[in-house]
């Protein structure tokens, strides 16, 4: 239920369209689309691995209450996630998700100005979309929000180092030939095997266990593990210099999955990018620091943010504050 917004008491009831976008390879993507008649801007949300469009609930609620009469909001589930259909495991790749984004934009006739908001793997999808030939893109975003993400080197830092161990390709081969129901029974032993390759402390092991538990609760094991190879290979560093969107990068100081060094690289390589850092937040920033993400979206949309919330962060600047 929407909370009362004292600044917008006239807000009318929200009417969502529930669409299905069928991709060129036959996968059905579940989409929610709010498109007001007086639209002046579109925001598309891209969720992370093992999550769904529901992970953006607080940000969507914020946009509806603040800008619901003129902002189109599109949120969809990646293939194999949420309400979208499963797909062949070989298509669980970031470049294929970028192609899915392209097809969603075209099918829904999304027009500029556009802001893409991505968390973790969702932000990687946005960057992969921008790394392709400009002639093949429907449109380029005017705003870009990259939350707890990276341009590559995932196997070199934080818990991502587990992706570079011998256990990962073995796990992928096992999953290709094992029913999902059986995989759930094997999940505990598999996670234990992975953790033995981790030379990290108790806090990192606990974070790994929590992440695995969330993945098993919300996403098929075959989907979660099916994306492991593409995370190992992901690298869009060469495309960062060509990004022209007004970009806001958000990082958490306690993020063990995509440590802040990844965000610092994004800010260094993307022209004029702003960096918002939350020292005590982890990887799940849309949940842990929703107001920070809300204001990052507002900033990327070129709407003047409140100085007491954003800390005055502007293009090429870094703001650090608590949740």
- The gyration radius over C-alpha positions equals 19 Å
CATH superfamily annotation of the largest domain: Alpha/Beta hydrolase fold, catalytic domain
Q: Tell me what portion of residues adopts beta-strand conformation.
A: 15-25%
CATH domain fold name of the largest domain: Rossmann fold
Description:
The chain has a nine-stranded mixed sheet with strand order 1-2-4-3-5-6-7-8-9, with helices on both faces. The N terminus is likely disordered. The chain has two domains: 223 residues, Rossmann fold (3-Layer(aba) Sandwich); 76 residues, no CATH class. It has 323 residues and is of the alpha/beta class. Helix 4 runs antiparallel to helix 5.
